[in-house]
Structures are given as structure tokens and as C-alpha cells.
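**Polypeptide and fold**
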Amino acid sequence: MACAWSRFTAVTMGPLAVAAAAQLLPCPALPCPAYAQKIISGDGIAQIDLRQPASFSTYTVTGDPASTDVTFIGSAFIADTDAVTDGGSARSYVFRNRGTIRTSGTKSAGVLLGSADAGSTVVNTGLVESDSTGDGIRIRGMAGVVRNQGGAIHGGTTGVLLERGGTVTNLAGSVIGASSGHGISVVNDGGSVANAGAISGGLIGVLLDSGGNVANGSTDGGTTIATGATGCGSAAAAATWSTMPAAR
């Protein structure tokens, strides 16, 4: 069923309220506790499996080989398959992209975190890109999280797809887009989108098929969501639209 602007509940929020929604939460205590991390670095054309315990292809693996907190630094140009994967692991991952990730595979994703039971997190400060039939980032687990911090996420079908609900935060200077489909699509459960950057889709900017909320910065402040319907929920659970007033 097509969504229309009448689906939205217009809400005006103060700048502090929306800004808080679009920021990462600080560590609750100082100093922050140390935790194991793994870094995968280098330039290559081989698929990156986050479970990889040791150096492979032209990539170097350092840190804790068993860690589920993984940072990628470098460039990966992968053909005919997902560029980054967790291999369907039952464990949830935190994946931090600080490099360039591209795939040309049909219906492939730049980043695919496929665990069906545990939601994972992607923090992007680099570039993630798929071809005209793929997704930029796809998370299959419950309550997936994507934080785009000054980076760019591009897909053909979808820029960011969360298959079982979740949260997308697009900070100032960040871009999420899809050439033919949805910029952001959160399906099968509630979704939340906080945008201080730019989101676009060939069909829909933001799709929340099970309802949720969209907090968007003011358009005259340089923040945009386009094209088509935005922040749409299903007939059973319409989304809530919130706009931050322009700075004075």
C-alpha cells in the first residue's frame, strides 16, 4: 500500500532533542573499559570474512583473532559476492569501516551481517558501495544498528536494509542513498532513523514498514530526505515524523 504524507504525525522538537537522537552515546564511565578488538587492513579483491582469525590474501589481521569487534582499514573491491560478511555467525558483530568497500555482485551487499538471531552494528566513516542490484549494508538479525559518521553508503536496491527492525543514525556530512530503491529500509519490526545528513532513494527515502520514527534536521539547515514518500509506516503502525527547527 502506498504511503502518503497524511500518514505522518507532525511533531516539532527542539534542537537539543533531535541533536541528541543523532549523536552516539558517550561511555558512561571514565576511563572506558578496555575490550578486545581485531583489525583487518590492506587492499584486496578477496571477500572479507569477519570470523577470519589470521592474515589472508592481501589482508593483514591483527589484534584478538576471536574478537567480534572488527575494524577494516584499506580497500576491498569484490566481484560477484558480498564484500564483507560474518558468514552467518550466530554471534553479533560490531564492524567499523574506515576504508573503501565495493561489490559488483548481482544482489550482493557491500556489508552483509547475516546472523538471524543477534543484531549487529556497523559504524561507517568510509565508503560502502554496491552495484545497481545490491544493497550497501544489510543486517539480518534483530534490532540491527547502522551509524554513518561522515561516510557514504550507496546501494542499487537499498542503501541500508535492516531485515528485523533496528536503528539508523546518519550524522552531519554523511550520505545514504540508493539509485533505484530505498535509501533506508527497516522491515518486519519497528525502526528508528535520526538524520542530520542526506538520505535519498530512487523510490523512497526512508521506508519503515512496521512503523517507528524519523527525526530529521531542517531542510534549510542542509539536511535532506528524498525522493518519494518518507518515514512511511504500515497501516497498523504509522511512523512519526520529527523536524529540527533551523538554527537562528
User: Anything to note?
Assistant: Residues 7-22+35-243 form one domain. Residues 15-21 form the longest helix (7 residues). The longest strand covers residues 135-148. The chain has one domain: 7-22+35-243.
